[in-house]
Amino acid sequence: MQNWQNEIKRLLIILVTVAVIGALLGQLAVTLLLALVTYCAYNLFQLRRMYQWLAQGPSSNKSAPPESIGLWGDIFDGIYRLQKQERKASAYLEGIINKAQESSAALEMAVIVIDKQNNLDWWNRASEGMLGLKYPQDRNLAVTNLIRDPRFAEYFNTENYDEPLKINAPGDSSKVLEFQIALFGAHERLMIVRDVTQFHRLESMRKDFVGNVSHELGTPITVIKGYLEAIMDNIDSLDEKWRKPMKQMHQQSNRMESIVRDLLLLSSLETRTLGKQQDEIALSPLLFEIKNDTQSIFEKRAHEFIIDCPAGIVVKGARSELYSAISNLAVNAAKYTPENGVVVIKASQSKQTIDIEVIDNGIGIEAEHIPRLTERFYRVDSSRSSETGGTGLGLAIVKHILARHDGELDISSEIGQGSTFNCKLPLARLISQRAKEEEE
Ligand code: ADP
Questions:
Q1: Per-residue confidence at 436, pLDDT binned at 50, 70, 90?
Q2: What b-and-e string marks burial along 267-297, b requiring 16 or more CB atoms within 10 Å of the CB?
Q3: Do 403 and 376 have their domain in common?
Q4: Residue 121 has pLDDT above 90, yes or no
């Protein structure tokens, strides 16, 4: 600002001096014109120097500006200072980008940026080996054209990225890849792909192992149980001291049989997918069947069983599996409710789900145990459970069955008041046609 005022002052002094000289010479107009032309020429000269300096292109960023004084000196220094700041900022950004690129190149997982038009924008080196992406040919190509598995297209387009997607690698079915997508910015996507082949192999080995062991144990247990049953039929002929151990062996062989049966069921639920051909299940008859079966097992407890289910609800699924899930819950409700309790099995339709609730007024469960109940072999009170003949696998089976039906289990309970186990199935499973027909 100081130099700007000086410049104005300087111009005024020159003009006044030139005007005085011009007046003395009697050539005021000519001398003023000469002075202004000289001033313009000086400014044009400085402009040319600046133009030439800037015209050096990127190198002008580095070379010092032409020497100058006054206002022009300030302008040159100002531009030079701004250039230096910009250079620093871009060097800093370049450093960050280089670091990000180097670290992502060192990653074993593929990292891919997809633009808002669903085209590939950027990817790291691992993506080239894992998905066969080629730079620059594949840049700006639609990601669904390069990964052609229909499950990927469905996952990508539905935009529900809560759970990762596992599919075989494109062009190499022996590999299993896990895709995880996150949305960011203006509807861009960051996709991370991991090779989970080894993990997948171990997981299926574990499933096979449990399945095989359970299967192999089946025959010896049946034989042992058969002999024990024969002995139990003639228990009176046995020496007194053998009676109690024989009874316990018989009880435990029954438990072993139940555990093996439940493990086999769990392993088949884990390994088989729910077929496309599914049953149309009328809920009301199913719930009455479960009620009758459970009531006959727990006859001595004299519970009151109530079914509350609109007649028209028909759902799509595997009937035997849904029977098993709800029946497990009904058996638990009867098991963990003292005599003369009330067990309600209720079905209803909410805005987003079909709810099948099993409600009891039994012993209830402390809040801390609820999140872990569906873990295998998890029991709130293991001594009580083994007394009641439980395997600790019932709720794990329920959870698996519901997951196979795209549903989930919701548990709420209050100690001493009772528990509610809610099987939530998505409305997509409701066969509304039949429901309407039956209402009419
Ligand atoms: P279990 O064969 O031991 O019953 P589950 O997996 O079916 O195994 O249940 C796990 C645990 O959850 C049980 O041991 C029991 O402590 C608790 N539980 C399940 N249902 C109920 C219920 N209706 N009321 C109280 N506790 C329950």
A1: very low
A2: bebbeeeeeeeeeebbbbebbeebbeebbee
A3: yes
A4: yes
Separation CA 109–CA 124 (nearest Å): 9
Give the C-alpha distances (Å, rounded to integers) separating 165 from 145, 180, 422: 17, 7, 27
Q: What is the pLDDT of residue 172?
A: 86
Q: Which of 44, 114, 50, 106 is nearest to 78 (CA)?
A: 50
Do residues 399 and 299 share a domain? yes
Segment 198-202 mean pLDDT: 93
Residue with the larger pLDDT of the pair 93 and 390: 93
Nearest atom, ligand 1, residue 362 CA: 24
What is the residue with the minimal CA distance to atom 23 of ligand 1? 333
- Residues 274-322: tens digit of each pLDDT: 877 889 999 999 999 999 999 999 999 999 999 999 988 999 999 999 9
On whether both 30 and 76 belong to a single domain, the answer is yes
Asked if residue 383 and residue 302 are part of one domain, the reply reads yes
342-349 and 304-308 strand pairing? parallel
Same domain, yes or no: 343 and 426 = yes
> Residue 183: which CATH number?
3.30.450.20
- Say yes or no: CB of residue 391 within 6 Å of ligand 1: yes
End-of-domain residue from the set 219, 238, 271: 271
* Closest Cα to atom 16 of ligand 1: 380
Token pair in block for residue 285: 């008859």
Give percent of the chain above pLDDT 90: 60
In this structure, are 156 and 241 located in the same domain? no
* Whether the CB of 390 sits within 6 Å of ligand 1: yes
Q: Which residues contact 209 (CB under 8 A, 6 or more apart)?
A: none
Number of domains forming the structure of the chain: 4
Instruction: Ligand 1 pocket test: pick from 254, 256, 262, 379 the residue with the most ligand atoms within 8 Å of its Cβ.
Output: 379
Residue pair 394/332 in contact by the 8 Å Cβ criterion: yes
Judge if pTM exceeds 0.70: no
Distance from Cα 402 to the centre of ligand 1, integer Å: 17
- Which pLDDT does position 70 carry in this prediction? 82
Provide the sign of the torsion angle of the four alpha carbons 373, 375, 381, 387, taken in this order: positive
Residue ranges making up the domain that contains 121: 107-195
